[in-house]
Specification:
- The chain has helices at about 10-15, 25-30, 85, 90-95, 155-165, 190-195, 205-215, 240-250, 250-265; strands at about 15-20, 35-40, 60-65, 65-75, 100-110, 120-130, 170-180, 200-205, 220-230.
- By secondary structure, the protein is an alpha/beta fold.
- The chain has a single domain (about 10-265), classed as 3-Layer(aba) Sandwich (Rossmann fold), CATH 3.40.50.
- Strand 3 (about 60-65) and strand 4 form a beta hairpin.
- Helix 5 (about 155-165) crosses helix 9 (about 250-265).
- The longest helix has 14 residues, at about 250-265.
- It is globular and about 50 Å long.
- The two termini are about 25 Å apart.
Length: about 260
């Protein structure tokens, strides 16, 4: 799958690190990137557009302390009606531009009872509960047909980020992320079942992008912002406003953590 008609400035830029910013986390692109350019998804032929509040819907590219990055300020979700191929099209694009490391972030509901809204979780692994896989009916010959998933999230990079967080007194959990389709939030019974399966947090993204990135041989890091307690654990009804409000509250800490991840990659 080839992306055509990208601006020459972008292809010449040759980003080395790709970032995907989850719900309520798009501020990072404006706060921390020395911006070279912006490219709305709607300006790329055949590209999906973001339809969810809090997802601006553009690539932002530039540098973070010398590292060349391209950032998705807004992502695509299965529940928006997009196919897996469309959801992971940005990963193809990044790979073709030379990105070697993907840092994917998300807003997630905490299942682990030790987690509270505002915590950060470094993904050690994931559980795919989407009912499908982005590699089904794959078009093209690049990458392994049957990629190994025994270490989706790079152990060496995770260790560096853990050490940074400890040295800088940033509270960082580490756990397993489970992806559902959404857009409805999970029922209490589902959350209980997910906990039995080993999930520490639940969300509606990240897994397809991570799978395709690994197919291409990219190093992957995943970071969740725990924006709410999952159903049955939370004492209140779950709302998208709670997700974005929590993300905004921890804005400086999240930005520091993500910028450190870029520097360590």
């Amino acid at each position: 799958m080839i992306i055509s008609k990208l601006p020459q400035e972008l292809t010449d830029f040759r980003p080395e690190i790709g970032l995907i910013l989850g719900s309520g986390l798009g501020f990072f692109a404006d706060d921390r990137i020395d911006v070279v350019g912006r490219l709305p998804y709607g300006d790329i032929d055949g590209f999906p557009v973001s339809t969810v509040e809090g997802h601006v819907g553009q690539f932002v590219y530039g540098t973070i302390e010398g590292k060349r990055v391209i950032c998705m300020q807004g992502r695509f979700h299965f529940y928006e009606g997009y196919t897996m191929a469309q959801i992971t099209l940005p990963i193809h694009t990044m790979h073709q531009m030379g990105v070697h490391t993907l840092i994917v972030t998300n807003a997630a509901g905490g299942i682990n009872l030790d987690y509270v809204p505002g915590n950060f979780m470094l993904l050690s692994d994931h559980i795919n509960a989407l009912g499908t896989n982005p590699l089904i009916a794959w078009q093209g010959s690049e990458g392994d047909q049957f990629p190994d998933m025994s270490e989706v999230y790079d152990g060496e990079l995770r260790a560096k980020i853990r050490d940074w967080a400890k040295a800088n007194s940033v509270g960082l959990k580490e756990g397993i992320y489970l992806a559902t389709t959404g857009p409805s939030y999970e029922t209490p019974a589902e959350v209980q079942a997910f906990g039995i399966l080993g999930a520490d947090a639940v969300g509606m993204s990240t897994v397809p992008e991570a799978i395709v990135a690994r197919k291409f041989g990219m190093r992957v890091i995943g970071i969740s912002c725990i924006t709410n307690a999952a159903a049955g654990i939370s004492k209140t009804k779950l709302t998208h406003e709670e997700v974005t409000d929590t993300a905004d509250r921890v804005r400086p800490q999240f930005a520091d953590l993500l910028a450190a991840g870029v520097q360590l990659a």
